[in-house]
Amino acid sequence: MADGAVSRADEAVFRPVRAGNPFEETVERLLQAIKLGVVGPGERLPSERDLAARLNVSRVTLREAIRALTEAGYVESRRGRYGGTFVNSQLPKPRRLSAKQLTRELGAGVDDALVLRAALETGAAEAAASRELTDAEAEHLKHCLAETSSASLADYRRMDSRLHLAIAEVSGSPSLTSATADVRMRLNELLDAIPLLAVNLDHSNRQHEVIIEAILAGDPTAARLAMQEHLSGTAALLRGFLT
């Protein structure tokens, strides 16, 4: 990925935690980076010193968070010249709840997350198409699109998340990127509760292509409408399975 794109993605997830729950929020930030594909399987997290500074936590707190994720099976620490903390090649399977359990747990939160996602991501697509993207930004979008289109069923959710986050990244708004990352984490639990349907994935991939084409063509209206159509399809599936 381009350095600029990496920087924006890092800023979105490795941002300072709020006072009060430094350990819990540090775990949340690290999981965001992993689950949204900002740091992929086999890749190394930023250095301990860098992460602690960017998250605005002590190195003791950061180490405790990394230890928790190690015990949960998300990362491993390696020693030596090329050591550090690496994301495991095989990630733990997401928690699987039935539609009835999720609906009972989340209640009105389902509609809230879907409305928020629609507002954020249609705006991100429109904003991205309104900008004159650099060559690196355009290549970043194409790369994420290609990875999503060729992803296995096991990797699809993560690569899909990464593509949607990439669109927010090139919108030019770090705040929008952060908000998109947060809402996607909320939605991933919902998405994990419904089956991956081959027909739907093919359709979704074609819609992704239309969205990226509109952004690269500099057509804000087409990008917004294409994203709106794409998100409405996902919302319909979720409501169908969760109600």
From TrEMBL:
Taxonomic source organism: Kribbella qitaiheensis
Keyword list, A-Z: DNA-binding, Transcription, Transcription regulation
Domain of life: Bacteria
Domain HTH gntR-type: 20-90
Protein name, per record: FadR family transcriptional regulator
Lineage of origin: Bacteria, Bacillati, Actinomycetota, Actinomycetes, Propionibacteriales
Coiled-coil stretches noted in the UniProt entry, renumbered to this chain: none
InterPro entries, alphabetized: GntR_C (IPR011711), TF_FadR/GntR_C (IPR008920), Tscrpt_reg_HTH_GntR (IPR000524), WH-like_DNA-bd_sf (IPR036388), WH_DNA-bd_sf (IPR036390)
GO molecular function, one term: DNA binding
Pfam families: FCD (PF07729), GntR (PF00392)
